[in-house]
Amino acid sequence: MRPGSLAWWAAKVRQTKRHVLARVSAPERAALTDWLTPAQLAVFDAMHVADQRHGLDVVAALRAGGMRDPEVLVAGLLHDAGKGDAGLIARVVYSLGTARMTWVERTVAWLPGMRPALERLRTHQETSARIAEAAGCAPRTVELIRWQDDPRDPDAGERLRLADEAS
Predict the structure, then answer these.
(1) Span 139-159, average pLDDT
(2) Torsion-angle region of residue 111: left (phi > 0), alpha (psi -120 to 50) or beta?
(3) Local confidence band at 1 (pLDDT 50, 70, 90 cut-offs)
(4) DSSP assignment of 33-67, as one string?
(5) How far apart are CA 161 and CA 138, in angstroms?
(6) Residue 15, C-beta contacts closer than 8 angstroms, at least 6 positions apart
(7) What's the predicted TM-score (pTM) here?
(8) 154 with 143: CB under 8 angstroms?
(9) Domain segments of the chain: what residues?
(10) Could you tell me if residue 137 is left (phi over 0), alpha (psi between -120 and 50 degrees) or otherwise beta?
(11) Which of 145, 140, 84 is nearest to 117 (CA)?
(12) Which residues contact 3 (CB under 8 A, 6 or more apart)?
Protein backbone atom coordinates (compact mmCIF):
# COMPACT_ATOMS: atom_id res chain seq x y z
CA MET A 1 0.00 0.00 0.00
CA ARG A 2 1.53 3.28 -1.13
CA PRO A 3 1.71 5.98 1.60
CA GLY A 4 -0.74 8.75 0.77
CA SER A 5 -2.88 6.60 -1.55
CA LEU A 6 -6.61 6.26 -1.06
CA ALA A 7 -6.12 2.74 0.33
CA TRP A 8 -3.50 4.08 2.76
CA TRP A 9 -5.89 6.80 3.99
CA ALA A 10 -8.70 4.28 4.40
CA ALA A 11 -6.40 2.02 6.42
CA LYS A 12 -5.35 4.94 8.63
CA VAL A 13 -8.97 5.89 9.30
CA ARG A 14 -9.69 2.26 10.28
CA GLN A 15 -6.59 2.24 12.49
CA THR A 16 -7.69 5.43 14.25
CA LYS A 17 -11.15 4.03 14.87
CA ARG A 18 -9.65 0.81 16.26
CA HIS A 19 -7.32 2.82 18.50
CA VAL A 20 -10.18 4.79 20.02
CA LEU A 21 -12.46 1.77 20.45
CA ALA A 22 -9.77 -0.75 21.50
CA ARG A 23 -10.71 -3.25 24.18
CA VAL A 24 -9.34 -6.57 25.41
CA SER A 25 -11.89 -8.87 26.97
CA ALA A 26 -11.23 -10.77 30.18
CA PRO A 27 -11.37 -14.13 28.36
CA GLU A 28 -8.86 -12.91 25.75
CA ARG A 29 -6.49 -11.77 28.50
CA ALA A 30 -6.96 -15.00 30.46
CA ALA A 31 -6.18 -17.12 27.38
CA LEU A 32 -2.72 -15.55 27.18
CA THR A 33 -1.65 -17.34 30.36
CA ASP A 34 -1.72 -20.59 28.36
CA TRP A 35 1.14 -19.58 26.08
CA LEU A 36 3.03 -16.63 27.61
CA THR A 37 5.53 -16.66 30.44
CA PRO A 38 4.75 -14.42 33.42
CA ALA A 39 7.38 -11.92 32.22
CA GLN A 40 5.89 -11.80 28.72
CA LEU A 41 2.42 -11.40 30.19
CA ALA A 42 3.72 -8.48 32.26
CA VAL A 43 4.96 -6.83 29.05
CA PHE A 44 1.55 -7.31 27.46
CA ASP A 45 -0.19 -5.88 30.53
CA ALA A 46 2.05 -2.80 30.44
CA MET A 47 1.17 -2.03 26.81
CA HIS A 48 -1.42 0.56 25.82
CA VAL A 49 -4.79 -1.13 25.29
CA ALA A 50 -4.75 -0.19 21.58
CA ASP A 51 -1.40 -1.95 21.17
CA GLN A 52 -2.69 -4.94 23.13
CA ARG A 53 -5.72 -5.17 20.84
CA HIS A 54 -3.53 -4.75 17.76
CA GLY A 55 -1.15 -7.47 19.00
CA LEU A 56 -4.06 -9.86 19.53
CA ASP A 57 -5.34 -9.04 16.03
CA VAL A 58 -1.88 -9.65 14.52
CA VAL A 59 -1.72 -13.03 16.29
CA ALA A 60 -5.20 -13.89 14.95
CA ALA A 61 -4.08 -12.97 11.42
CA LEU A 62 -0.93 -15.06 11.77
CA ARG A 63 -2.92 -18.03 13.04
CA ALA A 64 -5.47 -17.62 10.24
CA GLY A 65 -2.54 -17.88 7.83
CA GLY A 66 -1.47 -21.16 9.40
CA MET A 67 1.27 -19.85 11.69
CA ARG A 68 1.70 -22.01 14.81
CA ASP A 69 5.30 -21.16 15.75
CA PRO A 70 5.17 -19.73 19.30
CA GLU A 71 8.22 -17.52 18.71
CA VAL A 72 6.47 -15.80 15.82
CA LEU A 73 3.16 -15.53 17.69
CA VAL A 74 4.86 -13.90 20.70
CA ALA A 75 6.58 -11.48 18.32
CA GLY A 76 3.20 -10.63 16.80
CA LEU A 77 1.69 -10.01 20.21
CA LEU A 78 4.50 -7.87 21.66
CA HIS A 79 5.93 -6.15 18.56
CA ASP A 80 4.62 -2.70 19.58
CA ALA A 81 5.45 -2.88 23.30
CA GLY A 82 7.90 0.02 22.94
CA LYS A 83 5.33 2.54 21.73
CA GLY A 84 4.10 3.25 25.23
CA ASP A 85 1.29 5.71 25.74
CA ALA A 86 2.29 7.99 22.88
CA GLY A 87 -1.26 9.25 22.46
CA LEU A 88 -3.51 9.39 19.45
CA ILE A 89 -2.32 12.76 18.14
CA ALA A 90 1.33 11.68 18.11
CA ARG A 91 0.37 8.45 16.35
CA VAL A 92 -1.53 10.35 13.65
CA VAL A 93 1.34 12.82 13.20
CA TYR A 94 3.83 9.94 13.00
CA SER A 95 1.72 8.15 10.36
CA LEU A 96 1.49 11.30 8.29
CA GLY A 97 5.27 11.61 8.52
CA THR A 98 5.66 8.12 7.08
CA ALA A 99 3.65 9.37 4.10
CA ARG A 100 6.21 12.12 3.58
CA MET A 101 3.97 14.76 5.14
CA THR A 102 6.74 15.88 7.50
CA TRP A 103 5.39 19.43 7.63
CA VAL A 104 2.71 18.16 10.03
CA GLU A 105 5.35 17.09 12.55
CA ARG A 106 7.19 20.38 12.23
CA THR A 107 3.92 22.22 12.79
CA VAL A 108 2.94 20.43 16.03
CA ALA A 109 6.33 19.45 17.48
CA TRP A 110 6.17 22.35 19.92
CA LEU A 111 3.18 20.81 21.75
CA PRO A 112 4.09 19.54 25.24
CA GLY A 113 5.21 15.90 25.13
CA MET A 114 5.03 15.67 21.34
CA ARG A 115 8.77 15.34 20.59
CA PRO A 116 9.36 12.47 23.07
CA ALA A 117 6.19 10.68 21.89
CA LEU A 118 7.24 10.94 18.23
CA GLU A 119 10.73 9.70 19.10
CA ARG A 120 9.21 6.73 20.95
CA LEU A 121 7.16 5.87 17.86
CA ARG A 122 10.17 6.31 15.56
CA THR A 123 12.31 3.94 17.65
CA HIS A 124 9.65 1.54 18.90
CA GLN A 125 11.01 -1.44 16.97
CA GLU A 126 14.33 -1.40 18.81
CA THR A 127 12.72 -0.50 22.13
CA SER A 128 10.15 -3.28 21.71
CA ALA A 129 12.93 -5.76 20.89
CA ARG A 130 14.84 -4.78 24.04
CA ILE A 131 11.69 -5.10 26.16
CA ALA A 132 11.05 -8.56 24.70
CA GLU A 133 14.65 -9.58 25.32
CA ALA A 134 14.44 -8.40 28.95
CA ALA A 135 11.25 -10.48 29.32
CA GLY A 136 13.15 -13.60 28.29
CA CYS A 137 11.78 -13.94 24.77
CA ALA A 138 13.69 -16.21 22.41
CA PRO A 139 16.42 -14.51 20.33
CA ARG A 140 14.40 -15.23 17.17
CA THR A 141 11.35 -13.45 18.65
CA VAL A 142 13.52 -10.48 19.55
CA GLU A 143 14.94 -10.29 16.00
CA LEU A 144 11.48 -10.61 14.42
CA ILE A 145 10.37 -7.64 16.53
CA ARG A 146 13.53 -5.65 15.82
CA TRP A 147 13.14 -6.06 12.04
CA GLN A 148 9.33 -5.92 11.89
CA ASP A 149 9.30 -3.24 9.19
CA ASP A 150 12.23 -4.63 7.18
CA PRO A 151 12.17 -8.40 7.78
CA ARG A 152 15.41 -10.35 7.75
CA ASP A 153 13.53 -13.66 7.98
CA PRO A 154 12.00 -14.08 4.51
CA ASP A 155 9.17 -16.32 5.74
CA ALA A 156 8.24 -15.59 9.37
CA GLY A 157 9.37 -11.97 9.25
CA GLU A 158 7.43 -11.24 6.10
CA ARG A 159 4.35 -12.99 7.47
CA LEU A 160 4.61 -10.86 10.62
CA ARG A 161 4.97 -7.68 8.56
CA LEU A 162 1.94 -8.53 6.43
CA ALA A 163 -0.18 -9.46 9.47
CA ASP A 164 0.86 -6.19 11.12
CA GLU A 165 -0.16 -4.17 8.05
CA ALA A 166 -3.45 -6.01 7.73
CA SER A 167 -4.46 -5.60 11.38
Answers:
(1) 96
(2) beta
(3) low
(4) GGTS-HHHHHHHHHS-HHHHHHHHHHHHHHHHTT-
(5) 18
(6) 95
(7) 0.88
(8) no
(9) 6-166
(10) beta
(11) 84
(12) 98, 99, 100
